[in-house]
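Regression check, iron/sulfur cluster case 472:
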Amino acid sequence: MGKTLYEKIWDKHVVHNNDDQPALLYIDLHLIHEVTSPQAFSGLREANRPVRRPELTLATMDHSIPTASRSYPFRDPTAQLQVETLEKNCRDFGVQLYNLESDMQGIVHVIAPELGLTLPGQTMVCGDSHTSTHGAFGALAFGIGTSEVEHVLATQCLKQYPSKTLSIMINGRLPEAVTSKDLILSIIGKYGNDFAAGHVIEYRGEAIEALSMEERMTICNMSIEFGARAGLIAPDDVTFDYVKNKPFAPKGEKWDQALSEWKSLYSDEDANFNISIEFDATKVAPQVTWGTNPGFVGGIDESVPNPDSLSKENKKEAEDALVYMGLEPGTKMEEIAVDTVFIGSCTNSRIEDLREAAKIVKGYKVFPEIRALVVPGSQQVKKQAEQEGLDKIFLEAGFEWRNSGCSMCLGMNEDIVMPGERCASTSNRNFEGRQGRNARTHLVSPSMAAAAAIKGHFYDVRNWDFKKEVIQ
Ligand SMILES: CC(C)[C@H](C(=O)O)[C@@H](O)C(=O)O
Ligand code: SF4
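Current build output:
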């Protein structure tokens, strides 16, 4: 019988198979950041162990750093301590760190692909759930806990049970102005936010093949919000073109060799998945979440649902969600006004995301009183955007233009949403308090977030007037 893409990568990386015990899996690339690494390094110190393969380990700082001024000391002493600790650990253990002085710094899941470190067929881990992002390249990439971070630092291996597999065949193409963010949100909306628990997803079909790498990363990123362990997309010419000539990608003969290996990375026709589902891309509308999990989502042309219309298991949670969100059933999505707009995070802060948002914003002004932030995913993205003049479009409209970091995606740094405020956010999580205490998060695509910043409320980007001149 044939193998799935997941099984092919798994089999190539198993160092040791133990009956009834987790297998030992070799890890090709270990990414680390300031939040989940300190205890892991302390463990190594106590046991007097070195990092086994420092050259396969890469660190960046992203979660707790400020994105406005980067000068030390930070206002938040805990953030300052985390960053100093990472600096020391990387120095002591010989690990490459992209710190705030480096123009390679950025959100961990944005920098590895842009540097050409994320490669098809690899195993990758990070003490961070959204490591699934890298699955867009056909890499088996998933988040691990801090004790596992220590294990990988010490051995370059990880104990793992194999996961079940879930194939999502996405037929047809996405309509004009509808993005891959809308696609993944509507899939989660249809099946529920824990449907994929325990599974590694493979996204396939015409809609996926038509997506750019940036768009594919958005989908794999949110596999976690669907409950999955990881998400995968088989590499193809789009992938190879993206990787080629990236700084750390294989070059010359090594490239040719890698390419011929990568071309075997797909699920065989007769491979068996534990679950297979199909999804129609042609009917997807721009999405807005209205609740406190990503599955509580609907089209911009819909209204906030009545919890009574939902399944029994969702009813209570939806009722609570509407109280927290300050929303009434029946309110049209387009009537929901926002206070804050955040364009950023490892879901949607890459150059294409910023281009999409800038297209909407061009020639307009941010609606009065709205606080709107654009936070590029990396300093490289920032530089590229500035070369293209996107920063000017945002700044002239009244957006803040920041340095890279996780920023308002999570309430762990200076960029937080105020209590009771409503935020249109391009990030991936909307649970209670995610962006700050009592903050209300609505997950949307970059163009939808940009449109909300201009209009002051959610607005259907399919009807956007791109030509209109500046609104006073
Ligand atoms: C801080 C980190 C452990 C966390 C994660 O693993 O996802 C963060 O990145 C998040 O998005 O909530
Ligand atoms: S941007 Fe958000 S989701 Fe991504 S790693 Fe940072 S905190 Fe986690």
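Comparison notes: Residues 5-160 form a domain with the Aconitase; domain 3 fold (CATH 3.30.499.10). The CA atoms of residues 114 and 317 lie 39 Å apart. No diff flagged against the previous build.
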